[in-house]
Amino acid sequence: MLQKWITSIGLDIGTSTTKLIVSKLLIANQQNQFMLPGCQIIDRHVTYASSIYTTPMLNDVEIDVQRLTVLLEKEYKKAGISLEQVEAGAVIITGETARKQNAESIVHYLAEHAGDFVVATAGADLEGILAAKGSGAIERSAETNQVIANIDVGGGTANIALCQNGKVIETFTLHVGGRLIRLNSEGFVTYVSPYLTEFLKNNHLRLREGEKTTFEQLSSICQLLAEETLIYVRALKETSSLLITPHTRSSIQPETIMISGGVGAMMKKQKPKTVTEVSIHGDIGPLLAHHFQSIHVSQAAETTRATVIGAGMQNTEVSGSTVYIRSKRLPLKNIPIIEVPVQQEEEWNPQLFQKRARTACMHASTIFSAEDPPAAIALSHFPYCSYKMLQELAKTISAEFITCFKGAKCLVVLCEQDIAKALGQALAKQKKELEIICLDQIDFTHGDYIDLGLPVAGEAISVSVKTLAFSS
Questions:
Q1: In angstroms, rounded to a whole number, what is the distance separating the alpha carbons of residues 318 and 417?
Q2: Taking CA atoms, which of 23, 159, 325, 382 is between 20 and 30 Å from 220?
């Protein structure tokens, strides 16, 4: 078994802050004459954590790309690394920053300068999943068999993920964050987010830009924001005026609630007692953190750097030889993988498979940006497959994919078993104008990203599976 240490970076460009992590990953390459090459992370540790910077902005709607570039060059130099030394990475644009005018151009800029890194604009749901993974909530849910809620509270949003048995089962996001209200040391309000208008009105609170506020008024607002968050997370109410997008809250109640993010990092600091102490960062973050602390939720093991505290690791394989490719799009990069179990019951049940496929595709459509292909459907728990079952699989996959990703023209399907050519042919008959790429013998995990290369041996193509490798 060959082993190699590689350097990877994690970069999070968030609503209020930007930070960089440099990690060392120990990769074990399990390769011999009897098996395809496969890599696994067997050890990791953070070697450098940058300062936490205020995200550089040209104005309220544009990120300053030039200042961001200078910042990164400076941090690379301080970390003692060059771009050529970095072999893997994850660059995630999160929070309100992902909704800025030039976020897409920054993604493309970083992709050009970051080689094979995972580069993505994270919507609120994906950010919640990443934070739950980085904070330790997902791992803890697997160890304890509890439902764990992770609330990642940053500058503009609180991204919530409910975790059970090592997986995220529900996500939603609230307009709760430290920088939604900004003020100076004298107590004059410099900014009030329009997203708080309805919430403040419903609670008979008045806060105006340019006017002076008091410690008591700020404390009341922060207490209500923390309480509203916890009430909704605990499924004690069906809706909230703070929801970013409409969400139907399930009845699942978490047994443990953890707080990560920049606000989570301040929870154990001394309670601010004056407006001057509250406004140390020019916002309400410290006071909001105190009120989360006072309602008895726990601070996550990883807080400020929960969203991206590791980086992408690349696992290069060769697809099975029975692939089906009816597309001229290859090569393709950074396609997110969504897992759909084929059979979790004793016998094949097409209705239950359809339900799982629909849930997975609908969830993915809210998480990932509208690229084409938007995601790769990975089929796990694949039993013996009859001709009838194959046709039912193809019909369901095609129908649910088209329903959830209306603008997509290319469907990528990954299989664990040697069935790709037959399944690809069945898929091609369902929707003739849909391009089909169907591969087998792919070792994947839900939440990974995949690169598809050009043919390397007959019909087989090179495949790189990238997993976001967070510290534990």
A1: 14
A2: 159
pLDDT of res. 35: 46
Q: Which residues of 113-150 are buried (b: 16+ CB within 10 A; e: fewer)?
A: ebebbbbbbbbbbbbbbbbbbbbbbbbbbeeeeebbbb
Chain centroid, CA 199 distance in Å: 27
What does the alpha-carbon distance between residue 234 and residue 296 come to, in Å, rounded to a whole number?
A: 13
For tokens 């090179």, name the residue.
462
The Cα diameter of the chain in Å comes to 74
What is the tens place of the pLDDT at every residue in 143-188? Answer: 999 999 999 998 888 999 999 988 888 999 999 999 999 999 999 9
pTM of structure: 0.76
SS3 assignment for the chain? CEEEEEEEEEEEECCCEEEEEEEEEEEEECCECCECCCEEEEEEEEEEECCCEECCECCCCCECHHHHHHHHHHHHHHHCCCHHHEEEEEEEECHHHHHCCCHHHHHHHHHHHCCCCEEEECCHHHHHHHHHHHHCHHHHHHHHCCCEEEEEECCCCEEEEEEECCEEEEEEEECCCHHHEEECCCCEEEEECHHHHHHHHHCCCCCCCCCECCHHHHHHHHHHHHHHHHHHHCCCCCCCCCECCCCCCCCCCCCEEEEEHHHHHCCCCCCCCCHHHHHHHCECHHHHHHHHHHCCCEECCCCCCCCCCCEEEEEEEECCCCCEEECCCCCEEEEEEEEEECCCCCCCCHHHHHHHHHHHHHHHHHHCCCCCCCCEEEEECCCCCCHHHHHHHHHHHHHHHHHHCCCCCEEEEEECCCCHHHHHHHHHHHCCCCEEEEECCCCCCCCCEEEEEEEEECCEEEEEEEEEECCC
Residues 6 or more apart whose Cβ sits within 8 Å of residue 318: 36, 37, 456, 457, 460, 461, 462, 463
Rounded Cα distance between 247 and 171, Å, is: 9
| CB 149 within 8 Å of CB 8 | no
